[in-house]
Amino acid sequence: MSAPRPPVSGVIDAHQHVWRLDTPGHQWPDADLPVIHRDFAIADLRAASAGIDLAATVLVQSQPTDADTDWLCALAADEPLVGAVVGWADLLAEDAAARIATLAGRRKLRGLRPMLQAIPQDDWLLQPALDPAIRAMIAHGLRFDALVQPRHLVPLHAFATRWPDLPIVIDHAAKPGAAAGGLDPWRERIAALAGLDNVWCKMSGLRTEQAAGEPAAALAPYVTHLVACFGERLMWGSDWPVLLVSGDDYADWFATARALAGLDAAGERRLFAASARRFYGISD
C-alpha cells in the first residue's frame, strides 16, 4: 500500500467570489440558480475550505459595476485572507484611464476583468477604442483576467501578441466544451496561447462546464493538456461558490484537481500556490 500524500501547504486560491444580493447593481446569480442565490462572505469561504491550508485568495469581481469593485476593494483592505482583488472597469469609458489609475491605487487591486463571455462580438478585444485603457493598465502594472470561451481564443491570441507587456490569465481554461467531450479546436488554440510568455491560465471552473452527473475523471484530458502546455504558468482556482452548482464542495474540487494534475511535490507547490503568488504579486 502506498503512503498517503502529504498535504499541500500555503494554498493560494487564484479565483474565488463573494457577493451580497443587496449590493447596488447586483445582477447575478439570480433565483434561477437557487444553490448560490444567497449572500457569500469570506467567513463562508473559511468554513468551506476547512481542512485545506488556505493562505490567501484572489477575490474576483462577479458584477460589471464600479460599485461592486469598490465594495470588493473595501472588503479586502482589512481582510488578511484576501491577497489580491480582480475588479471591473468600463474599458471603453472616456475616463477609463483615470478610473484605472484610481483603482491601481487600491492596495490589493491587482487586475481587471471585462466580462467577455457576455459580449456577443468574439473580437471585441481588438477594437482600437480600448487602447487608452490597456495602456493605462500596463502603465500601472495591472493584470488582465480573460473571462473567455473557445470562440474568443483566436482574437485573444492576437490581443496578447499586440500587448506583450500586459500579463494575461485565461479564466477557467477558456471553458472548453467538456459537456460534449470535445477537445478541438480548444486544444490547439489553448496551446498556441501557452506559447506566449505573457499568457497564464487558471485550472478552475471546469466542473461546472461538465454535463450534470458526469464524473470528474472525464476532465483528465483537459487537465493533462493544461499542465503540459502552461507548466509554471498554470494556477489552481476554486471558482467557489459557483463551484457548488456542479454538486462539488471546496474539498472535492481541490482533491480532484490534485489527482488529475498528477504532479510531484514541487509541481503541486507551483500549481496550488507559487504561480498565483507570482502572477498577482501576492506577498508571503
TrEMBL record:
Domain Amidohydrolase-related residues, every copy: 12-282
Signal peptide: none
Domain of life: Bacteria
PANTHER family for the chain: AMIDOHYDROLASE (PTHR43569), AMIDOHYDROLASE-RELATED DOMAIN-CONTAINING PROTEIN (PTHR43569:SF2)
Family from the record: Belongs to the metallo-dependent hydrolases superfamily.
Protein name: Amidohydrolase family protein
Naturally occurring in which organism (per UniProt): Sphingomonas kyungheensis
